[in-house]
Amino acid sequence: MTAIGWLVTGKVVTTKDDEPMEFVSFEDTTAIYETTFFPEAYTRFCGMLTSARPYVLRGRVEEDFGAVTLTVEGAAFLDRA
Fold first, then answer.
1. What is the pTM of this model?
2. pLDDT tens digits, the chain, 81 residues: what are they?
3. Cβ atoms 22, 10 nearer than 8 A
């Protein structure tokens, strides 16, 4: 799935193996949606995460206990996608 959005907020946490990852909320013209940057994606994209520019996000939509999230596999600035 591909989504476009502005970063609203994020929370960095660590896995049970002490690896950093981040839960990030993005907003588009219709809603706020939740994403997960697991350790590999977090390492690749954490340096570019800012609320100053819109993003194109690619990943898998997953549901866990009724919560739907986008597990991010790719991220780029909208103007460079």
1. 0.93
2. 999 999 999 999 999 999 999 999 999 999 999 999 999 999 999 999 999 999 999 999 999 899 999 999 999 999 876
3. yes
Strand pairing class (32-37; 20-27): antiparallel
3-state secondary structure of 79: helix
Give me the residues paired with residue 10 across strands: 24
| Cα-based distances in Å from 19 to 40, 43, 62, 69, 72 | 9, 10, 21, 20, 16
* Degrees to nearest 5, angle at CA 45 with 16 and 74: 100
Question: Which structure tokens are listed for 52?
Answer: 């100053």
